Structure formats: C-alpha cells, structure tokens
C-alpha cells in the first residue's frame, strides 16, 4: 500500500469486440499517483483511453485489471468523495441553475434545511461568477456559463478530489481563457486535488503541477510525467514570460507530434518501464530533458528528443 | 391574436361555409319522381310524396344541435338522456380505463426501461398483444367480467396500455447517460434518482405515449359502447341510427370529434408543461 493520496496500479482496460473476441487493450500497465493538493493533467491523443482512466477513478467504469486507491481505500463505484465535471456539462435542463447545484448539495448533506442548501449552492455559483443567473434554466446560458455551473456543482459538494474530463474542450478560446483563470483562482485558494484531462498544452502548463503524457493506443501507457517547475502563482497573462514556459511547451508539443507513437504502446521502439514512468523537468534544463527518477538498475531510456532552445 | 391567426381563421370559416353550402345544395328537396296525377295516397304510403332525399339538410342537423345543446343534461329514462350525460358516461369510462392503464404502464414501463434484460423478455408479449384490436377482447371480457360496463372499461384499459408502456420504457431507457452518471457520482438513492432525474428526463416521451393512448381510447370507447349499449355517446349514436334519426347521428359524430379535440389539447398542454429545452 502506498502512502500517496491517490495511487493507480497496473490499470488495464480491454473492450470486448463485436464478435466476442478480446480486442487489444486500450491501455495497460498504467501506474501513477497523486498527492493531496496536487493538480495533475493528462495529455494524449484521442483513443488512448484518458476518459476511461478518469471514469475508472470516478467509479463509473470498471477496469479490466489493476486497482485504484484513494485515501487508502479501493475505488469501487462512484462516490461523493470524487466530484466530476463532465465534458458536456451534463446539467439537468429541467432544473434551474441553482436547482442543479442544490441537487448535488442535497445529495451530499441530505439533512440540511432548504435555506442552508440554497445558500451553500449560491455561494459556489457566486464563486464562478454566476450569482446573477441562479434562477435561469441551463438552456438560457451560454456554453461557458453552463460549464461554470458544472464546475460549481462539483466544487459545492467539497469532494476530496476533483475529476475534470476536458471541461473546456467545447468552448471558444476567449471563454476558455476566462474560465481557466477562474478555475486557477479557486484551486489556488482551496488547494483542491485535481485530475484533469485536456487536449490543450497551454492549459495544462497553466494549471498543472504534473502533466502525464500518454502514448497512443492501443496498448497505451504513461510515457512520461512532466513536472511543471514554474512557481505556483501563475497567471494566464504572465506565464509566457517565464523562461521555463517554452521549454516545457516545446517538450509537450514535441511529444504529441513526434514521440507519442514510438515511445511506448503498440509500436514501442525503445525501452520503457511503465511501472515507473520517468519523471522529467524540461523547465529546469538548458540541455535536453533529463530523466530524474530512473528505475533502479536499468539504463536510461534513449529519448528521441528534439533539443529545445 | 396575430394577423396570421386571423387570416387562418378566416380561411377556415370560408371552408366551413363552402362545405355547408355544398351540403345544402346536395340535399335540397327535389321534385318527386312520382307523377302528380298518380295515386297520391299510394305515394304517401311509399314515403315518396314528402319530396325529400334521405339525407338530412344542414338545417335539420342544426336543429338537432340547438335541441340537444339547449338542454344537455335531461334524463327521461334509459333511451332518452341528454348529450351531456351521454358524453359524461363515455368520459368516465375512458378516464377510469386510462387511469388503470397508467397505474400499470408507468411502473412496468419504468422497470423494463431500466433493465435491458426485462426489456428483451417483455418485448415479444408486447409485440403480439399490441396489434390486437381492443374490440377483439370484448367477448372474453364480457364472459369473464360478466358486466358490460366493466368490459367497456377493460377495453379502454387494454388499448391505452401499450403506447404508454412502450413510450415509458423507451423514454426511460434513453435518458442521457450523462445525467445518470451525475446521479451516480452524487450517490443519489434509487428512488430519488427515479423521481428527480429519470422521470423528468423521460416525461416528454411518456406524455407523448399518454397522448397517443388517449386518442386511441376515445376512438375505441365509441365502438365499445355501440357493442355493449346502455349509456354513452357510442350508444347514443347507435340508438339514433336505430331510430333512423340521421340528424342526431350527425350531431353526435360532430360532438365526438369536438370532445376528442379537447382531450388532445389537454394532453398537448400537459406535454408542453413537462418539455424542457436543452
């Protein structure tokens, strides 16, 4: 048993094919851990099973093999300890904005009186800047506002961990920026533990402490874990002035464009220990990123990597 | 009212006027075919001397309208009741049969909608029972229930249950995965999930089923009452036909249509009430 807040061990998922035979696993040998208060992003191409991993952590899906532990207890089935923000906001259109959040609050604290529930829900809606719209129906809101309600709903139940499934994927760039800022503020204030899927490299660098890079599926694995070494008080306006920013960014883009195919997974070309994926800190290096955490007694992986300068 | 609605209403009225005019022309009393010099007593005996076609004119039907609608609730014995009373009998049977069908169709539909296994298991029965004309059950109902009134209600029950059952099951089965997942991650208990998530999500589909059922029930009650007799708008039609009082038959047919329209409007309104915009 590990001492980490969340640890995932040897996770694997195989979907049965139409004719009943087993397909190649979408991902396998997934090992990682998240400490309390950490913000972890996961990046990878479509089809590598990011959402499945998140659903396993949420308890909505079962893995074919492997385990996930949170707070030293095995994750089995959904729980109020883990709040989920869905990609498609998933608000109930027949409830008002306040009703949606209050529904979650009442689920967590069934004995609270109505006033207290509504006050609690309103507080979190104000936190995401929707204090003026609490009596509207979701259909009357823009996409960005709907997603904010989803975030307020997840935060309102004060979960031990927050799972975000590409929450800003469907938003335009401007709206996305504003909500990222809001999320950043809230997370910095609450020290919420977060696991988030994203396709957006900049979003990951802005928000995350660690970024997990997944190789392509099938047989997807966690190829590397990139530590974002910039100070935690980042802002969207200032982050690109940090000298580390482009090093990290180039490293990530480089992985997605060039190396995600060959690093691990089905057509892996080089040695890689999925049980202990290398931790890299491209932000601190002037030279090509070095592998910091190496599996004991093994030679360093030969990283096919473009030098970032 | 908007200008558009006014225009449409005007055209509707014009069509009604043209229809009534054509009807009047077609049923106008003609010169008798019997020659004037022929035996007039014989002609009277044969019914041709009255110089009328068989089909009533709009005027005669209008007289029926005035006559029945001016006193809709009189009761002068089993074969002579006001139209209001007859319609009330029919509506009462429809309401009772429909209510019973709802009480069964909604829970069962919910159950088979939630479980793909039960859905498959129930499917063959539903598929076989659904296309059976409700009136085909009549002999069995009369034999086993031994009461014509209850048999009428049973027929309404059996014809209303299928659209409601199928739509409820379909509506429940196709509730968005996301909403179910939200309820799951919030550890909502099954009853609360059913009442606050699945029911409102499936309500528009369920109401569509109820609206279809109500339409069928109103169609069927007329036929059922013609068979079992006694009371009701269907029996009224049959009774007036036996009296060869065609104006009254036409009047009753019009009333069936109007009541049916209001039933449909009622369910349309309910449907609008539960429909949500995404």
Report on the structure:
The complex is a heterodimer of chains A (309) and B (278). Chain A has helices at residues 50-58, 97-108, 114-127, 143-156, 173-190, 201-207, 243-259, and strands spanning 6-13, 27-34, 39-43, 65-70, 73-74, 82-85, 161-165, 193-197, 210-214, 222-227, 279-280. Chain A is an alpha/beta fold and 309 residues long. Chain A has a domain at 6-81 and 159-284: Rossmann fold, CATH 3.40.50. The longest helix of chain A has 18 residues, at 173-190. Chain A is globular, with a radius of gyration of 20 Å. The N and C termini of chain A lie far apart (41 Å). Mean pLDDT of chain A is 85; it is low at 303-309. Chain B has 278 residues and is an all-alpha fold. Chain B has one domain (80-274): MetI-like fold (Orthogonal Bundle), CATH 1.10.3720.10. Chain B contains 11 helices and no strands. Chain B has helices at 3-26, 40-46, 58-70, 83-114, 116-129, 138-145, 148-173, 177-185, 190-228, 233-242, 246-274. The radius of gyration of chain B is 25 Å and the shape is globular. At the A-B interface, β6 and α2 of A face α8 and α9 of B.
SSE layout:
The complex is a heterodimer of chains A (309) and B (278).
Chain A (H helix, E strand, L loop, with lengths): L5 E8 L13 E8 L4 E5 L6 H9 L6 E6 L2 E2 L7 E4 L11 H12 L5 H14 L15 H14 L4 E5 L7 H18 L2 E5 L3 H7 L2 E5 L7 E6 L15 H17 L19 E2 L29
Parallel strand pairs in A: 3-8, 3-9, 6-7, 7-8, 10-11
Antiparallel strand pairs in A: 1-2, 1-4, 4-5, 9-10
Chain B lengths: L2 H24 L13 H7 L11 H13 L12 H32 L1 H14 L8 H8 L2 H26 L3 H9 L4 H39 L4 H10 L3 H29 L4
